[in-house]
Structure formats: structure tokens, C-alpha cells
Design a protein that fits this description.
- The chain has 8 helices and 13 strands.
- The chain has helices spanning 12-23, 70-83, 96-105, 119-134, 156-168, 173-176, 228-241, 251-254; strands spanning 2-7, 27-33, 44-45, 48-51, 63-66, 87-89, 110-113, 139-146, 177-179, 193-199, 205-212, 217-224, 247-249.
- Strands 3-4-2-1-5-6-7-13 form an 8-stranded mixed beta sheet, with helices on both faces.
- A hairpin with a 4-residue loop joins strand 11 and strand 12.
- Helix 1 (12-23) packs across helix 7 (228-241) and helix 4 packs parallel to helix 5.
- The longest helix has 16 residues, at 119-134.
- It is elongated and about 60 Å long.
């Protein structure tokens, strides 16, 4: 039985994950956390009181599942580090400095960090890695679409795709990326990776990667039909991470890709 705490429980992902946990015989929901000023603090969700301090419930759990903001995640991660509790992080929007802090803490506790918990998307990462090596001379564009409430752009998944392709070019993504285009931008640099963000209605998440050669085009496309695909992936991640030694893991490790 995995005793789980969900942080960001009133968010779209957190609430869905808590519902699935209560229906899964392999899990027991022992705590739920929200920000201190949230109106639902003190109320119950799935029969568990919502608290604003992870430290109040950390002793009950053997894994924390995190879908919040970078500052909140790092604060919660410090508590997990102190109590040696594994963590699954689905939060996106981290800076490189913040990723560095996560890597440092992963030397003490097991952490699974993924911008996208979908099994299909993580298989997409593998296919993109192979395509980028084989089609190394092709130009690449990435287009991601999400609902209009999403706060960060581009998506963490799009950044991950860009990083995979940049590595195939032996380059750093931030040195060759072009986030959209506007005005007289000149001829396209052959090495650059274009990333474009669309925000429309209630789109759950779509990612399209386009490899363009002189006489052909290859497109890889993933469309999420429901957030449940991410929530179920997060539960698989929790089952995986509680069995691991300290280190920084991804969904690719879980899927043995």
C-alpha cells in the first residue's frame, strides 16, 4: 500500500490524481496540500482535510506527488529532503537554476521529474530522439497547443522535445531556439529549432514535431484526449519511485526506454 500526499490538490491535475488514488487499491490518500490563501483550506477532499503545510502530513506518507508551481515545489522538496521522502514532480516552468537545485536534492532522495506523465508522450520522446539522429540534416519546428488558462509558454513538454533535438545537434537548446517569429527575421538558420505556442479554449494538450527536408516532411504528433492520461501516469510514477535509490529519474526510466 502506497501512502500518498498530493500537493496542489485543488488544481485540475491534483484533484484528478486524488480521485484516482481513492479508487486504486494499491494507494491510500493520507494528505492533501494547497497554498495558504486557498479558500478550500480546512475543508475535505476525498475525505481528507486540506492543509497548507506539507510538514503537517509528511510523517504519514511514503511518496509526495507534486503539481503546483516552481517556488512551492522547491519548498515542498526541502521538506521531503529533510524527511527522506520520495517525490514525483509534474510541475513545469522551472528555470535552469531551479532544475539544478532539484538535481542536488536528488542525491539524497529519489525524485521522478517529468514535464509530461503521459506514457504516449514519453514514447514520443523516444521516437523524436531516434528521428533527430537519423534526420540530423533536416530543419525542425515544434508546435504546442494548450487551453487558455495555461500560465507558462512554451510547455514543459515542448521544451523537453527541443532539448532532445538540440542534444542530437550537440548544442544547447537556448543557443539555437527561436520562440515564434515576428517582423523581418531574415532567412531561417538551418540549425535553429522553432517552438511555437498556441492557447485556445479547453485544449488538453497537443504537440507536433515537424522534420523538414528538401523534398519531404515527417511529422510526429501526440494529442491528449483527457487529463486522466497524465494522472494515471503520475500514479505509475509513484509506484516506480518508492522502489528506487536516491537519484533523478524520468518517465523514460519507468518505461525502460
Amino acid at each position: 500500500m502506497i501512502k500518498a500526499v498530493v500537493c496542489g490538490v485543488c488544481g485540475r491535475m491534483g484533484s484528478l490524481i486524488s480521485q484516482l488514488i481513492r479508487r486504486d487499491k494499491n494507494f491510500f490518500l493520507v494528505g492533501v496540500v494547497e497554498r495558504i490563501d486557498h479558500p478550500e483550506i480546512g475543508k475535505a477532499i476525498e475525505g481528507v482535510e486540506i492543509v497548507c503545510d506539507l510538514a503537517k502530513v509528511i510523517e504519514k506518507t511514503n511518496v509526495v506527488i507534486e503539481f503546483t508551481t516552481p517556488p512551492a515545489t522547491l519548498a515542498h522538496l526541502a521538506i521531503c529532503e529533510e524527511k527522506r521522502v520520495p517525490m514525483v514532480i509534474g510541475t513545469t516552468g522551472f528555470s535552469q537554476e531551479e532544475i539544478g537545485k532539484i538535481k542536488d536534492i536528488s542525491k539524497k532522495i529519489p525524485i521522478l521529474l517529468s514535464p509530461n506523465m503521459s506514457l504516449g508522450v514519453n514514447l514520443l520522446f523516444k521516437l523524436i530522439k531516434e528521428a533527430a539522429v537519423i534526420l540530423k540534416d533536416y530543419e525542425v519546428e515544434i508546435v504546442e497547443t494548450h487551453h487558455h488558462r495555461k500560465k507558462d509558454a512554451p510547455s514543459g513538454t515542448a521544451k523537453k522535445i527541443g532539448q532532445i533535438i538540440a542534444e542530437s545537434k550537440n548544442s544547447d537548446l537556448e543557443k539555437i531556439v527561436r520562440y515564434g517569429r515576428h517582423g523581418l527575421v531574415g532567412e531561417r538558420n538551418h540549425q535553429e529549432i522553432g517552438i511555437h505556442s498556441l492557447r485556445l479554449g479547453n485544449v488538453i494538450g497537443e504537440h507536433r514535431v515537424i522534420f523538414g527536408g528538401g523534398a519531404e516532411r515527417l511529422e510526429l504528433f501526440h494529442k491528449a484526449e483527457s487529463r486522466e492520461t497524465f494522472a494515471r501516469g503520475a500514479l505509475k510514477a509513484a509506484v516506480f519511485i518508492v522502489k528506487q535509490h536516491p537519484g533523478l529519474y524520468s518517465m523514460e526510466n519507468l518505461l525502460r526506454l
